């Protein structure tokens, strides 16, 4: 019996754009908002100079063999390839991986972030951009990933990731935070993506503030260096595993 493919709205939106539909757009529902947001597929195909400064800084800080996690349409992988880096791009979306391959990413694979590495394969840099630390899903996922990264990284390897503090979403009119301290961490957000009539399964995405990242990383045995912050509470961090 053939198995029905899982919905892949992100992959199909990226493929539609690649095939010429420049208006392809994803609809995004978030648990922290009552309004549906629009995410143009074109954003996944931006040029180097259309990238935020934090992303350009991260590309400058890459070294060695790079794992581009959550690679999307490959804007970061392709830029690094052009600079002479060996890059492996992974994404959980089969459609995105097809786009990566068609756009010329030399090593692209459909993998979850927590999949085991290939035997003998170790990376010098794990790159996680576009609020990419969110791929871990939850605080439990962050703890799990920081341990899993030890199986992925070569000695002295680094993680370059962006994340955001979204506490501002919980401010009242006086600027006080309205957060349930007994509930889940406020940065654990549930997403659902839709392209046309195709709705993907809901998934968790983590927006970890700088203090959380530092605490969890140091507990896991990583050195922490913050490399920049923008005016939207997004920051770039380097986590270097101690031996």
UniProtKB/TrEMBL annotation:
Keywords: Methyltransferase, S-adenosyl-L-methionine, Transferase
UniProt cross-references to Gene3D superfamilies, sorted A to Z: Vaccinia Virus protein VP39
UniProt superkingdom: Bacteria
MF terms (GO), sorted A to Z: methyltransferase activity
Record CDD domains: AdoMet_MTases
Gene Ontology biological-process entries: methylation
Cross-referenced InterPro entries: Methyltransf_25 (IPR041698), SAM-dependent_MTases_sf (IPR029063)
Protein name in the entry: Class I SAM-dependent methyltransferase
Species for this entry: Hymenobacter persicinus
Lineage: Bacteria, Pseudomonadati, Bacteroidota, Cytophagia, Cytophagales
């Amino acid at each position: 019996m053939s198995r029905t493919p899982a919905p892949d709205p992100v992959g199909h939106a990226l493929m539609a754009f690649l095939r010429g539909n420049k208006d392809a757009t994803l609809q995004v529902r978030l648990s922290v908002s009552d309004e549906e947001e629009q995410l143009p597929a074109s954003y996944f195909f931006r040029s180097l100079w259309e990238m935020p400064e934090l992303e350009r800084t991260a590309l400058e800080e890459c070294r060695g063999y790079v794992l581009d996690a959550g690679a999307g349409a490959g804007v970061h992988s392709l830029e690094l390839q052009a600079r002479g880096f060996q890059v492996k791009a992974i994404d959980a979306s089969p459609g995105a991986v097809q786009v990566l391959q068609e756009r010329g990413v030399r090593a692209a694979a459909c993998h979850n972030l927590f999949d085991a590495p290939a035997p003998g394969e170790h990376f010098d840099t794990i790159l996680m951009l576009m609020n990419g630390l969110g791929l871990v899903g939850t605080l439990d996922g962050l703890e799990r990933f920081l341990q899993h990264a030890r199986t992925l990284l070569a000695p002295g390897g680094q993680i370059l990731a962006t994340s955001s503090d979204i506490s501002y979403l919980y401010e009242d009119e006086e600027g006080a935070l309205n957060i349930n301290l007994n509930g889940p961490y406020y940065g654990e957000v549930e997403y659902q993506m839709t392209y046309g009539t195709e709705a993907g399964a809901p998934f968790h995405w983590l927006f970890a503030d700088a203090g959380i990242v530092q605490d969890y990383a140091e507990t896991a045995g990583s050195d922490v260096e913050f490399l920049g912050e923008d005016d939207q509470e997004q920051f770039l961090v380097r986590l270097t595993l101690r031996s």
